[in-house]
Write a structure and sequence with these properties.
- The structure holds two protein chains of two kinds.
- Chain A is an alpha/beta fold.
- Chain A has 17 helices and six strands.
- In chain A, strands 3-2-1-4-5-6 form a six-stranded parallel sheet.
- In chain A, helix 16 (403-406) links the parallel strand 4 (390-394) and strand 5 (425-430).
- By secondary structure, chain B is mostly helical.
- Chain B has a domain at 95-157.
- Helix content of chain B is 69%, strand content 0%.
- The chains are: A alpha/beta, B mainly alpha.
- At the A-B interface, helix 1, helix 2, helix 3, helix 4 and helix 5 of A face helix 1, helix 2, helix 5, helix 6 and helix 7 of B.
Chain lengths: 473, 164
């Protein structure tokens, strides 16, 4: 290989690794994030550009064909996807990333196995074999797991946990077989059974991905998406070790770290361990003690709500997944504007696990033009919640359930919540009294200062807005 | 069982521990395989092109060869440092930007496009290899193009002040 091109490639990879790091650093502020994203994209373009100079690349037609199809498909999807479908979209992208890593691992294995064979056990080869194995295993799990997550989020299949008898045993057998193939591969990488075993490994990895994702239900999706995001990074990292490629290792490790951090944040916000999320099939387990809340429900009509809100000096909206389902973010913003004109101080309180992915609610409200300085995090809003006149809960349930604070028998006990019941009045916009994803009844609905407004959140809010408009005329 | 859940609860901590254990096992294996010949090194797709310099050098200069760092340990070192850097960097991202962070990191994980290029560009000797390469190329480019575009689209929605 031409020495100059080699050095050029190395330097270019270094620069693009630096742009990824710098881009992620700029992600820490909304004002610099756009630039950070563009810088990171430039680094990606540079990395792709110099790779095409690599003498291993002999023909360009397949790169161009594949690249064009991918670019066009990705761009159309990115420009068309509604913000409410963001979780499914991200899950899908995790999957394609995993599949790409798995295939890169496979292609390298194919070249090594059919052409030169693997060498003796020195560090390079040990890492090469291990990384090839991991790239295919993690890549496969990421791909099929993400596709199941995508199907669940886009409601192409049931969002409820799917559990069957002996599930853990089946999982263990599949995982055990996968490890066994790893041992066979490591023991004799050039053996005649290795190729079929590797094909089987990829199939098993995909089965494993499906098996571990189907028992996970709707509201646990934030954790799973974060975890799969992390896996897609780790798979990229493993394929970086396969190719001895620094930029892949750096980028993969960064993505892996980001996914792990988000997973930990999500788990903490639900007061549950990762193991509990992954293995319990929350909300469907039989024999769980679920407390039932009873009492008198005070229902309001939108007209009554108008009088409550008209007098309010401070209002806090608490959005949840229901807002995304009802596509109510724009009417929420409209009502917030009217309330501000009416002299009220309006804020939005966002629980870390509201919605189906981290930051889901923030994006929806940003889409509706709500400035981000009006968005409060749970820890900022809880200390001042008792000074708030009216809390409007839009499609949130478990994240405002006081049972998490009051009832030690509840399965969500200990989960940090937004204490909306401490506000002077609490309006809950909801279709019915049905319990949330966790299957736990919500005593909030029966509190003295709570008023329920039944019906579709969007219609209810539109009703209240019309009352305000009538009153103004 | 409670012990297992306790361990998994400490995800970040356990992450570090496993990374350290993983790399030290590799190091031990490396030390143990000193006696074995390093001649039979399998050329990987890219291994040919990178990091083979130090081995050539080591032949010409015995003093240098004693000091020469194994390129693979450098890669593992890079990996370790990057993970720590990533954690430091990303804990600073506020929760309101978590969705763009995820789609942005999706785009970055599309860096496997580099590997896909190398696989797809190897010519027509093996139809299977071309097929794998093209599919990998499509998947990785979906990630890259889609990831960056959607992140940009999302971030442009975040406004500090009321739009007039």
């Amino acid at each position: 290989m031409n020495e100059n091109i080699k050095i050029l490639t190395e330097i270019a990879y270094m620069i693009s690794a630096a742009t990824f790091i710098f881009g992620l650093k700029m992600m820490s502020k909304p004002t610099t994030a756009i630039k950070g994203n563009i810088i990171s994209a430039c680094g990606m373009a540079l990395a792709i550009g110099v790779t095409l100079l690599n003498p291993i690349v002999k023909t360009y037609e397949w790169i161009i064909i594949g690249g064009l199809i991918g670019t066009i498909a990705g761009s159309i999807a990115a420009l068309k996807v509604p913000m409410t479908s963001m979780p499914g979209f991200v899950a899908f992208f995790n999957g394609t990333g995993g599949l790409a890593s798995m295939l890169v691992g496979w292609s390298d294995f194919h070249v090594n196995y059919t052409r030169s064979g693997y060498g003796g056990y020195n560090l390079e080869n040990i890492v090469l074999i291990l990384a090839t194995y991991l790239a295919m295993l993690i890549g496969g799990v990421t791909f099929s797991g993400s596709m199941i997550a995508y199907a669940k989020l886009e409601e192409k299949m049931t969002g409820k946990p799917i559990l069957f008898k002996g599930q853990q045993v089946v999982n263990a057998i599949v995982l055990g077989l996968g490890i066994l193939i790893g041992i066979i591969f490591f023991a004799n990488p050039n053996g005649s059974i290795v190729y079929p075993a590797i094909i089987l490994l990829m199939i098993l990895a995909n089965i494993l991905g499906i098996l571990v994702t189907i028992p996970i239900g709707g509201a646990d999706m934030p954790v799973v998406i974060c975890l799969l995001n992390s896996y897609s990074g780790m798979a990229a990292c493993a394929s970086g070790f396969v190719l001895n490629n620094t930029v892949l290792i750096v980028a993969g490790a960064l993505v892996g770290a980001s996914g792990i951090i988000l997973t930990a944040i999500m788990c903490k916000a639900m007061n549950r361990s990762l193991a509990n999320v992954l293995f319990s099939g929350f909300g469907s387990a039989e024999g769980k003690i679920s407390t039932s809340a009873h009492g008198e429900v005070r229902a309001l009509t939108p007209e009554d709500a108008y009088y409550v809100l008209e007098a309010a000096r401070s209002v806090v909206f608490v959005p949840g997944y229901g807002m995304a389902v009802a596509q109510a973010q724009h009417v929420v913003k409209e009502l917030a504007d009217i309330l501000e004109k009416n002299g009220a101080d309006v804020k939005f309180a966002i629980h870390p696990v509201a919605g189906r992915m981290p930051g889901h609610m923030n994006v929806l409200l940003a889409e509706a033009n709500v400035p981000y300085d009006k968005l409060l995090e749970m820890d900022d809003v809880n200390p001042i919640i008792d000074t708030v006149d009216v809390c409007i809960v839009v499609g949130a349930n478990d994240v405002v359930n006081p049972a998490a604070r009051e009832d030690p028998n509840s399965s969500i006990y200990g989960m940090p919540i937004i204490n909306v019941d401490y506000a002077k009045t609490c309006l809950v916009l909801k279709r019915s009294l049905a319990s949330g994803f966790s299957g736990v009844d919500n005593p909030l609905f029966f509190k003295e200062n709570t008023r329920m407004i039944f019906g579709d959140a969007k219609q209810t809010l539109t009703g209240i807005i019309n009352q305000f408009k009538d009153a103004m005329e | 069982m409670s012990k297992i859940t306790f361990f998994i609860k400490k995800v970040p901590l356990m992450g570090w521990v496993s990374v350290i254990v993983f790399s030290s096992v590799l190091l031990l294996l490396f030390l143990g395989s000193f006696t074995q010949s390093a001649q039979a090194k399998a050329p990987s797709i890219c291994a040919v092109s990178q990091f083979s310099v130090s081995q050539q050098d080591s032949v010409s200069n015995p003093y240098q060869s004693e000091r020469a760092l194994n390129p693979m340990t450098l890669l593992i070192f890079t990996f370790l440092i990057t993970v720590f850097l990533g954690v430091e960097l990303l804990t600073k991202v506020p929760s309101q930007l978590h969705t763009p962070l995820m789609s942005g990191s999706n785009a970055i994980s599309g860096i496997t496009v580099v590997g896909a290029c190398l696989a797809a560009g190897q010519g027509r000797e093996s139809l299977l290899l071309v097929l794998i390469g093209v599919i990998a190329m499509i998947c990785a480019m979906i990630n890259v193009a889609g990831g960056y575009l959607v992140t940009d689209r999302m971030l442009r929605m975040f406004k500090g002040k009321e739009r007039k």
